[in-house]
Here is the input.
Amino acid sequence: MKITALIFTLLLPGFGLLFAQMPSGVLSGDSLPVHPVTKITYDSSFYEFGKVMQGAMVRHTFHFTNTGKEPYLIEDVKTTCGCTVPVWTRDTIAPGGTGEVHVDFNTGGKSGRQLKIIRVVGNTEPGEMILQLSGEIKIPKKRKAKG
Here is the structure.
């Protein structure tokens, strides 16, 4: 048992060096090619939807421009819950080109002040851009029965 632990202790640092010296253009772990980094500018990364009644569908489109020198590709768009559904430009955006991230937020079952975070993953530095939806959801007042 002591010999196994000793061998493991001696070999472990070598594995770190092996993976640290992977050729550029390859991500460690999943071997997908790395795209050159570019710069993206959003018209606005924050949308205040104001006050809406519970059950309303909030829809907003975030527009962006590739202001960098390399093509831009959105690899993924992540949200904090299933109530927020993103749809985004799937094509590569050339420098100077534009694209969008459209978001539908279902307010059903929600109430009070809400802040929804949308994470756009792509070949930018940093690799994740943050978009936000915010507003207040009002609960409809119950009507008294006539009697």
In short: The helical segments are 2-20. Residues 2-20 form the longest helix (19 residues).
